[in-house]
């Protein structure tokens, strides 16, 4: 990616929704209630606590980057 392309915002690039786990600030193992939309259109929310994905940070993430863990069922 060229340097000038890094400064585009998701919305300016035409995205309707954009979710990026790198910007999550929750600690490891936290059940995520709301995932903010980087394009500013729709936030992803889950009201049921047993269906929320878990935040994985550090060594529990992907290559040291923050990630979300879904159980594959709900």
Q: Can you describe what's shown?
A:
This protein has strands at 34-35, 44-45, 54-58, 64-69. Helix content is 0%, strand content 20%. The protein contains no helices and 4 strands. It has a two-stranded antiparallel sheet with strand order 1-2. With 74 residues, it is an all-beta fold. It is globular, with a radius of gyration of 14 Å.
Shape: globular
Task: Tell me the total number of β-strands.
Answer: 4
* Helix/strand class: mainly beta
Order of helices and strands: EEEE
What is the strand arrangement across the widest sheet? 1-2
Query: Taking all residues together, what is the mean pLDDT?
Result: 88
The parts where pLDDT drops under 50 for at least 5 residues are: none
- Rg over CA atoms, rounded to whole Å, is 14 Å
Tally of DSSP helical segments:
0
Largest sheet: 2 strands, antiparallel
What is the CA-CA span between the terminal residues?
A: 36 Å
Please indicate the percent range of residues in DSSP E strands (runs of 2 or more). Answer: 15-25%
Q: What is the helical fraction, as a range of percent?
A: under 10%
Give me some keywords for this one.
two-stranded antiparallel ribbon; 74 residues; mainly beta; globular
Strand-helix topology:
Elements: E1 34-35, E2 44-45, E3 54-58, E4 64-69
Short synopsis of the structure:
This protein has 74 residues and is an all-beta fold. The chain has no helices and four strands. Helix content is 0%, strand content 20%.
